[in-house]
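Tokens in:
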């Protein structure tokens, strides 16, 4: 028998030692508001003071109907993770189910003892049997967990005294366990929600689910599954609003890093004075206002991906530091001197003509070649007109659902207007137009007059030119002559010079339109 356990069994010393143990547990429970530190101290105190092999606190997850080991003394991390018991399963599950304590004098004689943690095998192989005691932790007659201990078996030792003491300790830690139970259930619920959202993101950003059936888009989407599984740097190019960020998300969420962070940085939106701190972080006191150490976007993206949008707009000084990150995968925080290693996949995007920027000396050529390992060009919407209606239908469905409206279709005149427009703002402009039309629709149909004025045609707006072409041109010419003669106060030579005509042609046009020069001179 262990020396500590011998002292504990001494009848003359047991009561004072019990009181001392209960006092220490009480102090530990009231010393710290951190539930993990509070509960973590209890098994250690019990095991050390009573000379036990192990002491374990399990907590019941009511949503899952299982008890998990939350804190323990004498168990490794792997052994703790194996300790999960459904209600009614094994001795621990039985205590949770019945709310009654159980004393097992010899675990080798108890078939219900499962030893899921696999920690008792060594003693059993050495012919050392173990006694096991498990008591419920209850709050208002509801079981919230268990407290259990292991000790080497001794025929001369009765477990009743230990059972009494452990029941008192269980009552003392009941409220702390109840608080810990709520915290544990919230954490597990958040983990489950995070896993669900992760699955949703991965399914949403599969190439097959991205809207676009044109030949140009099929070529782009065919490349995504090829580059996504690798760690290759990707440079996405295309006009503003074509969906470069969507392609970047598609690459990340179809890669092995899908469960890791995806950090987005708009380089054009960050002032030059703060972009270095935003990307690489800063140390406390690095500059005025740096009151604490701060991690940069690259550190936050460690093990995941970072999306550098509008990469063509960063300053030359930042380009130098970014080049080092691409080459060495390390950097220093602003004001720091310790290199920080990161494992980050870089996906960059730009709508600028990078080759022209290089010629103008505004972008480093070596950085361009580091970024341009796997280029992807997303074509503008005007070059994939077959995608316009697919995208419009998709936006109508999603935006109508968000607005709580029942929009069933797009009218034929509106379709003609959508397909005839040149879309300088690309997909983003199309989405904004559909959102406006959805809000204006009152009969479940998007009509031509619901679209912005820039999309209106002459037929749809009733503004078709009246008269023949010759008459319209003569009207414009007469108006231009009148305005110019007004400006020159009837001076035909001056008016001719302004209009780029000879004085002879100017005189003929004035005579043709029967214009009175004296009226302009008086004006």
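Residues out:
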């Amino acid at each position: 028998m262990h020396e500590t356990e011998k002292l504990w069994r001494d009848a003359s010393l047991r009561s004072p030692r019990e009181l001392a143990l209960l006092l220490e547990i009480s102090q530990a429970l009231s010393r710290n508001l951190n539930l993990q530190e509070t509960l973590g101290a209890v098994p250690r105190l019990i095991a050390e003071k009573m000379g036990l092999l192990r002491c374990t606190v399990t907590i019941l997850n009511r949503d899952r109907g299982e008890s998990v080991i939350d804190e323990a003394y004498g168990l490794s991390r792997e052994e703790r993770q194996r300790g999960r018991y459904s209600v009614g399963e094994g001795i621990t599950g039985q205590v949770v189910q019945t709310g009654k304590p159980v004393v097992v004098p010899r675990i080798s004689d108890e078939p219900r003892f499962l030893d899921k943690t696999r920690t008792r095998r060594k003693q059993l192989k050495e012919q050392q049997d173990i006694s096991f005691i498990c008591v419920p932790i209850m709050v208002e007659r509801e079981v919230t967990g268990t407290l259990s201990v292991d000790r080497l078996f001794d025929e001369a030792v009765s477990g009743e005294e230990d059972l009494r003491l452990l029941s008192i300790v269980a009552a003392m830690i009941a409220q702390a366990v109840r608080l810990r139970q709520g915290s544990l259930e919230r954490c597990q619920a958040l983990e489950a929600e995070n896993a669900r959202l992760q699955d949703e993101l991965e399914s949403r950003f599969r190439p097959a689910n991205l809207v676009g059936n044109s030949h140009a888009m099929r070529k782009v989407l065919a490349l995504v599954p090829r580059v996504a599984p690798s760690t290759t740097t990707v440079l996405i190019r295309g006009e503003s609003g074509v969906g470069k960020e969507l392609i970047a998300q598609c690459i990340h969420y179809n890669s092995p890093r899908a469960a890791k962070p995806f950090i987005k940085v708009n380089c054009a939106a960050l002032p030059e004075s703060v972009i270095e701190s935003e990307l690489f972080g800063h140390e406390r006191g690095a500059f005025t206002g740096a009151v604490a150490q701060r991690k940069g976007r690259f550190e936050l993206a460690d093990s995941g991906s970072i999306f550098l949008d509008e990469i063509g707009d960063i300053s030359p000084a930042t380009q130098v530091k970014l080049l080092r990150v691409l080459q060495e995968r390390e950097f220093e925080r602003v004001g720091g001197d310790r290199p920080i290693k990161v494992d980050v996949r870089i996906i960059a995007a730009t709508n600028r003509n990078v080759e022209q920027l290089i010629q103008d000396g505004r972008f480093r050529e070596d950085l361009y070649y580091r970024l341009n390992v796997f280029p992807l060009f997303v074509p503008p919407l005007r070059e994939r007109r077959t995608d316009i209606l697919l995208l419009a239908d998709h936006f109508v469905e999603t935006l109508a659902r968000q607005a709580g409206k029942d929009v069933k279709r797009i009218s034929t005149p509106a379709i003609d207007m959508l397909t005839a427009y040149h879309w300088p703002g690309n997909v983003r402009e199309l989405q904004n137009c559909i959102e406006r039309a959805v809000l204006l629709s009152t009969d479940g149909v998007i009509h031509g007059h619901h679209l912005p004025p820039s999309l209106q045609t002459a037929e749809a707006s009733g503004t078709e030119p009246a008269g023949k072409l010759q008459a319209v041109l003569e009207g414009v010419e007469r108006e231009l002559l009148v305005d110019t003669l007004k400006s020159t106060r009837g001076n035909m030579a001056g008016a001719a010079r302004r209009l780029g005509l000879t004085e002879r042609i100017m005189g003929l046009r004035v005579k043709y339109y029967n214009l009175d020069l004296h009226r302009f001179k008086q004006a």
